[in-house]
Amino acid sequence: MIEIIPAIDIIAGRCVRLTRGDYDTKKEYGDPVALAMEFERMGFRRLHVVDLDGAKSRHVVNLAILQAITSRTKLTVDFGGGVKSDDDIKQVFDSGAAMVTVGSIAVTRPDTCLGWLHTYGAERIILGADVRGGLISTNGWLEESAVTLQDFLNKYLQDGVRHVLCTDISRDGTLQGPATELYAQVMKAHPQCRLIASGGVRSLDDIEALERAGVPAVVFGKAIYEGTINLKELIARCLPKE
Predict the structure, then answer these.
(1) C-alpha distances in angstroms, 91 versus 25, 33, 55, 59, 83?
(2) To which H or E segment does residue 79 belong?
(3) I need a surface site. Which of 5, 126, 146, 195 has the fewest CB within 10 A?
(4) Annotated active-site positions, please?
(5) How do residues 205-216 score in pLDDT, each as one tens digit?
């Protein structure tokens, strides 16, 4: 059964969603802590939190919100956005995150990324592979690298990474369906990868298509906030029973 993970992106203390990573398209959806508590009440067990302020400013900003979520829920939280230094990652873990997503630094400072992988272990580090036109984007998707997705995954999976969060930026926030073929290709090339698909999910049909493609997990947010996905049906279909 595919693992379903709701997402909370944070700007200025509020839950927001962007379209294709464009900060000018920001739309607010309320208090992130209250939303996290509601997700737990619904039966979700995991939460993906992104510090968009941190991603843009290149250091973690919203630690207080992370700490509030982890202290007021039992959700397994993975956190990304602005984690660029040893202090950043230590503070994120100290604030209750179970896992940390690292993307930009994996491109710009691979030795640091591999050091964290060794220090914290492969079960606590998620490689963030944010893709636009086949190339990895960095720093809140504001900059494009020359690194291809294939080379990026080949390197880090060989070096011991197990968890990968892959976002097709062209689909993110559009509600136009995920890049299922892309994720199927990743799984075919790297069947051992614990892939988390992200971007474009609109409906339960999208999630079922990802499951048929062999994708282990999916992150989505806008479909929940905009009401395009039937949450009752989704929970009955995808969440494990107590």
Answers:
(1) 30, 19, 16, 11, 10
(2) strand 76-80
(3) 146
(4) 9, 130
(5) 999 999 999 999
